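Is this the right way to post structure tokens for a design question? Let me know if I should format differently. Anyway, here goes:
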């Protein structure tokens, strides 16, 4: 399993060099213009018009209302620390209206984020994740202090880090936009994966009392894992199917904004099950067997 995680990390690094990281304007800074329209429009045609007017690379995406299929919108995003001023916005709207005369194009909203603001927001998100990680270690250390709590907390954190890396690698490999939803994914995985890990460590604590302190800790961990594996796998499977259902419904109804939430969360949930069963307690057992609790 560690080899599998290593492959994921290597693939992520390769994709970063090949295609880069697709940061939302919330983090990278830039502008985002949303337009409503009727009929059918090819996104490639919109992209050509926008690039000609704005003289820079743009990203065009489409979204549709779940309740009203006729309420269709496209979003033009300009990142890489570039913003669009009022004059360019007016020129872009006129160019789109001239190009697509029969589609009733209307400007819905314009969002601009300065690069410094995006960087500050990104750093605050990282601080929130770091604080959550520290609290995880403290909580696990306190709860399982009778079986070497600090070491259990640190190895639980290793598993959580692998889950976060998996979710991040999923975004990079699939070319998903990393936005505020990704922070939601990370915080969700911290709680979800930690819960699975705590269940196993709780069984380790109980089995150590039942089997006796002289029993090899690796045997105790193995027995505890076997007792919990069915529960953890079934719980993860149920949640995974729910997330996939959300993704399918979102894709069928044009809700592309949910893609950056559901896909990394689905892969992160699978990683959380794997790390909580096959990584954190196993490494902890090897550590305790060698160093003592």
């Amino acid at each position: 399993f560690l080899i599998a995680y290593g492959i994921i990390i290597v693939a992520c690094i390769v994709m970063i060099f090949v295609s880069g990281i697709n940061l939302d304007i919330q983090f990278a800074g830039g502008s985002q213009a949303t337009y409503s329209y009727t009929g059918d429009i090819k996104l490639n045609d919109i992209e050509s018009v926008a690039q000609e007017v704005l003289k820079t690379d743009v990203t065009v995406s489409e979204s549709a209302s779940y309740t009203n299929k006729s309420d269709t919108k496209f979003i033009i995003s300009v990142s890489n620390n570039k913003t669009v001023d009022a004059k360019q916005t007016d020129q872009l709207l006129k160019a789109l209206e001239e190009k697509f005369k029969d589609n009733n194009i209307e400007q819905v909203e314009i969002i601009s984020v300065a690069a410094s603001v995006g960087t500050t927001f990104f750093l605050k998100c990282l601080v929130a994740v770091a604080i959550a990680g520290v609290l995880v270690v403290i909580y696990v250390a306190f709860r399982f202090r009778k079986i070497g709590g600090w070491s259990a907390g640190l190895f639980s954190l290793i598993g959580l880090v692998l889950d976060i890396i998996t979710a991040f690698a999923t975004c990079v490999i699939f070319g998903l936009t990393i936005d505020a939803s990704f922070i939601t994914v990370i915080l969700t995985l911290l709680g979800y994966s930690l819960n699975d890990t705590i269940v196993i460590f709780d069984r380790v604590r109980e089995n150590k009392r039942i089997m006796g302190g002289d029993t090899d800790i690796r045997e105790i961990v193995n027995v505890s894992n076997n007792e919990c594996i069915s529960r953890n796998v079934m719980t993860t499977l149920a949640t995974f199917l729910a997330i996939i259902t959300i993704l399918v419904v979102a894709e069928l109804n044009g809700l592309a904004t949910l893609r950056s939430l559901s896909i990394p969360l689905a892969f992160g949930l699978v990683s959380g099950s794997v790390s909580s069963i096959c990584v954190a307690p196993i490494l902890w057992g090897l550590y305790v067997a060698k160093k003592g609790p």
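Format looks fine. Someone answered above. Worth noting: The chain has a mean pLDDT of 82. Strands lie at 30-37, 59-64, 72-78, 106-113.
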